[in-house]
Amino acid sequence: MEPTLATIRKCLGDLIFGEEDDELQHVVGRMLAARQQTLAIAEHYTGGLLASWLAAIPEAELVFRGGHLLTTETARDEESVQRIASQLQADSQADLALVVGSLETPPPGDDVGRIHFALASDTGVQTRTTQDIGHPDIRQARVAKAALDLLRKHLAS
């Protein structure tokens, strides 16, 4: 089985974050603990899902400084989520602050809204944007995983 796993790892590269029962939040928790770093989050679109996931990991007491729910109006664009991430990092005294914004109104002629993420660290604030696509039953989880993946890739670099 190992040759097949090696081929899969080679083909998928950094898309692979774990094996067996690993969930993304578990991998991120272990990475934070190994680096002795802490995380604070603020979220709107995911409605507290990230906080719930992170509070349940074994490393939560060591790495998770807590979460906040944002109002729609405070986190609709890239600039606002960047500002919130910087302020959250300072206020929480966490090493990292991750923000998931609210659904941005689609531009004229486009029927797909966007959600902005921001990750504040000692090197600055990085952002990512994703489209609000997929079945409604999985949208929040998909966006929460995209936010955790942004964090995972930052920690891996």
Describe this structure in words.
It is built from 6 helices and 5 strands; from the N terminus they run H-H-E-H-H-E-H-E-E-E-H. It is an alpha/beta fold. It has a single domain, classed as Maf protein. It has a 5-stranded mixed beta sheet with strand order 2-1-3-4-5, sandwiched between helices. Strand 4 (114-121) and strand 5 form a beta hairpin. Helix 2 runs parallel beside helix 6. The chain starts with a helix and ends with a helix.
What brief labels describe this structure?
157 residues; 5 strands; alpha/beta; Maf protein; globular; five-stranded mixed beta sheet
Please outline the helices and strands.
Elements: H1 2-12, H2 24-34, E1 39-43, H3 49-55, H4 60-63, E2 64-69, H5 78-92, E3 96-104, E4 114-121, E5 124-131, H6 139-156
Order of helices and strands: HHEHHEHEEEH
**Any idea what the CATH superfamily is called?**
CinA-like
N→C terminal distance? 29 Å
Level-2 CATH architecture: Alpha-Beta Complex
Instruction: Give the number of DSSP strands.
Output: 5
Largest sheet: 5 strands, mixed
Mean pLDDT: 89
Strand arrangement in the largest pleated sheet: 2-1-3-4-5
pLDDT < 50 stretches:
none
Quickly name the level 1 CATH class.
Alpha Beta
As a whole number of angstroms, the C-alpha radius of gyration is: 16 Å
Shape: globular
Determine the strand fraction and express it as a percent band: 15-25%
Q: Note the total helix count.
A: 6
